[in-house]
Predict the structure.
Amino acid sequence: MTDIADTTDMAEVLAAQGRLAQLVFGGMAAHVVGQVTRWRLSERIGDGDRGAAELADELGTPEHTTVRVLRAAAALGILSEPTSGRFALTEAGAQLRADHPMSLYAVARVLTDPLLTAAWLRLPDSVHTGLPAFDDLHGTDLFAHLRTESELSALFNAAMGQGTREVAATLPQHYDFSRFETVLDIGGGDGTMLSAILGEHPTLRGILFDTAEGGAQAAENFRAAGVAGRCTVETGDFFTAVPDGADLHLLKSVVHDWPDDQVVTILRHCRRALPDDGRLLIVESVLPDTVDGNDPYAYLNDLNMLVNLGGRERTQADFERVCARAGFTVTGVTRLLPYTMTSCIEAEPGPA
């Protein structure tokens, strides 16, 4: 271990200590974000500034504790305190408004919900068993639980849409959709991705396939995007079958939800429904063979998949392996965003 007395670059030592402090306090910071989000503070404060006393009165909380949350949020850069006891939104705080064009309200609300964070407290159990702690805690899996809570299910769908927004904007520039007639978006959620693809390709038709709960907001979003006339919504279970009639199958943020055997089941259904000249397109994080520090969130999401769903993020070799088991050959992997590991993995069908 380095002897601090012999260290010539004390700035480096102190920077490392600061980084560790950020990590150690990170869980507490997430709880502050969760409280701000559940209180809908970004909407309550709006475009001006508001006093702690009036916010506490609206919330029905004591002023002396409310101001402590507000000041913690200001210290974290979500709010500012222009004068003592009055608070305004920063740009980060503004993005916690549900109506902000780059809103991350639903993402923050879902990822800080006690339903999901409770499973993280059981991370050691999941590491030992390889099984999601969520199921043991709640007596059912996450998706089954969401079917019983319509409000949380809608928030979850919105969070997935918000998490898809940036990828949806760039995918049409990185992949040639013009050679296909119909794209089937499997597990397509609220239609954010399919709307973007159809918006860029006016001759392309689309089918969104999801559970009734998962696709509940899709039709409305298709109408808003002006693509409803070229798109249908079908409901079902991709562990049973997927619809026929498409020459491109798209899976965005679906594969990482499941362990390998269940992924192979989904992909085999795709293989049966795809024509021999069709293509499979998987959009997921592709982990490098060794950690390169480019996208730490992919590794945190990998553990989130473990504790809450039982799934995982994968390397290119992992994708090649599960695709081969299902009758596909990976033909290309393209990084979509330079600062994340999100990529599109194209595969072609082998012999049926």
